[in-house]
Amino acid sequence: MTAAPAALRVEGLHAGYHGGLVLHGVGLHVEAGTVQALVGRNGAGKTTLIHTIAGLLRPYSGMVEIGGVDLAGKPAHRVARAGVGLVPQGRRVFPSLTVAEHLRLAAAGRGRDPMWTVERVLELLPRLGERLDHRGDQLSGGEQQMLAIGRALLTQPRLLLLDEPTEGLALDLAARVRGLLTGLAEAGLSMLLVEQRLDHAIEVADRIAVLDYGRVVFDAPTAQVRADPTTVQSMLSIDQPLPQGS
Ligand SMILES: Nc1ncnc2c1ncn2[C@@H]1O[C@H](COP(=O)(O)OP(=O)(O)O)[C@@H](O)[C@H]1O
Ligand SMILES: [Mg+2]
C-alpha cells in the first residue's frame, strides 16, 4: 500500500517582492488529514508563504506540491481548482455584498454533488443563516470570520489555508472559531493554520512549525511542544501566554 500523497509539500521555496527575498528556502509539509500550524513573529513571512502557496504570489524558485501535483507559480484559480481553499488574513469580506451573495458566488460552478453546499455551511455556521441579508460591512468581526470560512468551504477544499483566523476577535469568539476548526479537522480536512498565539495553535494542530526571517526553524509534533513550550516560546515574541496546564 502506498501512503496518500501529502496534502501539501513545500520545498526550497524562495519568494518575495520586487526581487527582494522574504522566504529563504522554506520547506513545510501538511500530511493528509492533519493540521499543521505555523507560528512566527510579525513580518516573519507567514502571509507571504500563504500567498505563494495559494498562487497569489509567484515564487522565484522551489516546489509547491498539492496532493502530489506541483503547482508552484500557477495562478490562484488553478491552485483553487486543485483543492486549495484560502481564508485570508483580515478576512477580506466584500463590504457591499450580502452574506447570501458571498455564499452564492463561492458556490458557483462547483459541479455536481459538492461536499459543501450552502445548506451544509449554514448548518455548520447557523449565525450566517440569521444574517443572510446583511452586507459585509454590517457584520461583526466574528461574523465576517465565519463568512470567510464558509466561503472557503464552498470552494470544496482538500487543503484549507487559514491566515490568523482569530486575529482581532473577542476571546469567546476566537475560542468558537478554534472549536469550529477542530471539528473540521476531526472530519478529516487538511489545514495549514497560521496562528499568532502558540497556546491556540497547540489546541488545534497536530504539528507546529516556526517561521523566522523566512526560514522554518522548528517543526515538531504538538505533543512535543506541549511538553516543552518554552523552546518555541523563545523563538516568538516576548510576551506569549503559556499554554494551560504547563
Ligand atoms: N506586498 C508587499 N510588498 C513588499 N513587501 C511586502 C509585501 N507584503 C509583505 N511584505 C514584506 O514581507 C515581509 C513579510 O511579511 P508577511 O509575509 O506579511 O509577514 P507575516 O505574515 O509573518 O507577518 C515583511 O518585511 C513585509 O514588510
Ligand atoms: Mg501575516
Strand content: 15-25%
**Main CATH class of the domain at 8-87 and 157-233:** Alpha Beta
- Biggest β-sheet strands, sense, barrel: 6 strands, mixed
* CATH homology-level superfamily of the domain at 8-87 and 157-233: P-loop containing nucleotide triphosphate hydrolases
CATH architecture of the domain at 8-87 and 157-233: 3-Layer(aba) Sandwich
CATH topology tier name of the domain at 8-87 and 157-233: Rossmann fold
Bound molecules: adenosine-5'-diphosphate, magnesium ion
Detail the poorly predicted runs: none
Cα Rg: 18 Å
Structural class: alpha/beta
Helix content: 25-40%
Task: Please provide the count of β strands.
Answer: 10
Q: Could you report the average pLDDT, rounded to the nearest whole number?
A: 92
Domain ABC transporter: 8-238
Protein name: ABC transporter ATP-binding protein
Family: Belongs to the ABC transporter superfamily.
Organism: Phytohabitans kaempferiae
What this model shows, in words?
The chain has 246 residues and is an alpha/beta fold. The protein has a domain of 157 residues: Rossmann fold (3-Layer(aba) Sandwich), CATH 3.40.50. It is 33% helix and 25% strand. The protein is built from ten helices and ten strands. The strands form two sheets. A six-stranded mixed sheet has the order 6-7-8-3-9-10, sandwiched between helices. A four-stranded antiparallel sheet has the order 2-1-4-5, with helices on one face. A hairpin with a 2-residue loop joins strand 4 and strand 5. The N and C termini lie far apart (40 Å). The model has no long low-confidence stretch (mean pLDDT 92). The site of magnesium ion has 4 residues, from helix 1. This is ABC transporter ATP-binding protein.
